[in-house]
Amino acid sequence: MKEIMMTSGSGFEGYEVTEYLGIVNGQTVIGSNFFKGIAAGVTEMSDVESEKLTFKLEQVNETAMERLKSNALAKKADAIIGVGFSYSQFANNAVGAVAHGTAVKLSRKVREEHGISNELFVSNYYNSVVPRPVKVILSGNREGINISTWYYNYNNVDIKAIRVDIELTNQFNEKLIMKNIDFVFQKGNLNLIKSNKIECKLQHKDVPMIKKVNVHVSKYVTSDGICVVEDNPIEIEMSSQRLSALKGKRGIDAVKKYKTDGMIWHCNCGYVNEAGAEECIICSRKQEDIREKTKFNPERMIARMKSKEKVTEIKDILMEYIKEIDSKLRMVLLEIMESGIQYEKTNKNMKDSVIEKVEKVFEQQ
Questions:
Q1: DSSP string, 16-37
Q2: What pLDDT was estimated at residue 343?
Q3: Euclidean distance between CA atoms 131 and 229, whole angstroms
């Protein structure tokens, strides 16, 4: 007979009841002949008679239990819960034993896992109207990791699917390249389109280790046909923290700060426009709007600071630009310099720490 789980309780650890199949029982009767010759009073029963009765009751219980199992299996049950015994006395000193319970279907509980995820802005971009990869999302648990991608769709073209190579870099600068990954979109005619999730090779422990992601688009499908991408992507030249701050202020497709030399101007989307162009060819941002929102540009100042070795020299660079900087930031920057100079007198070189703090001040603006 097939094994079946039984308990007097209401369930089993690691399992959940998925279906109740009804009450089942198994019955057997001890004939009256057995009791002939056995004293009616238990207190007057001899040891031999007691052993005979105990042995017989055990046999009866086992028989009732086997019949209980058989009836439950006939219902295709996986287990019986609430198992119990009862006894009844019939005429002529016959005794009936009944094993009863509830037949149920079971399934193993899925082990609860704390989900894990890592959302990363893409560290490269295309200087064209190709669907621009902007974010990669890794999510899942110990059972498996999924990957999905977001794209900025400048012309609101109805994009059905896209094929990409994804390069992931971990904290040890080790790279994992996933080739020819195909994503599809439920709504592909929006500015920001989000792909389906697909399984990937990563293990659960690897997800938080990923620090950088590059996406290379090879082709994509629109309602008009298949478009092959021959352009090479451009690497974004800023830290992930600065990139995140920029996108928070200028939009998820932003990859560069606005700047101009009078002959050309760099849009936030990264495209280089001629000075006479009022709006960007790629993203349609208006130069006037970007310029109005742009205050002091610290990039040149910070670049010069990085060429110095001592905080006192870095402070000299700051003082050259101090009048151009918002008055609310001047005191903060000067405090950073003074603190760095004091620490540098007794500790190691504070150059990198000071410059990092200066960058954060401007990123928060």
A1: EEEEEEEEEEEEEEE-GGGGTT
A2: 87
A3: 10
Dist. CA 126–CA 232, nearest whole Å = 7
φ, ψ for residue 222 (rounded to 5)?
Answer: -120, 180
Cα 365 to Cα 73: distance, rounded to the nearest angstrom: 71
Report how far residue 69's alpha carbon sits from residue 2's, in angstroms, rounded to the nearest whole number.
9
- Helix 299-306, helix 311-321: angle, nearest 10: 160
The answer to whether 268 and 290 have CB atoms below 8 angstroms apart is yes
User: pTM, whole model, 2 decimals?
Assistant: 0.57
**At 16, phi and psi to the nearest 5?**
-130, 145
List, for residues 35-68, the tens digit of each pLDDT value: 555 545 445 555 655 676 677 778 888 888 999 9
Confidence of residue 92 (pLDDT cuts 50, 70, 90): low
Distant-in-sequence, close-in-space partners of 244: CB < 8 Å, separation ≥ 6: 121
| Phi, psi values for residue 321, rounded to 5° | -110, 0
Per the CB < 8 A criterion, the answer to whether 62 and 54 are in contact is no
Interval 284-297: pLDDT, tens: 999 988 875 556 77
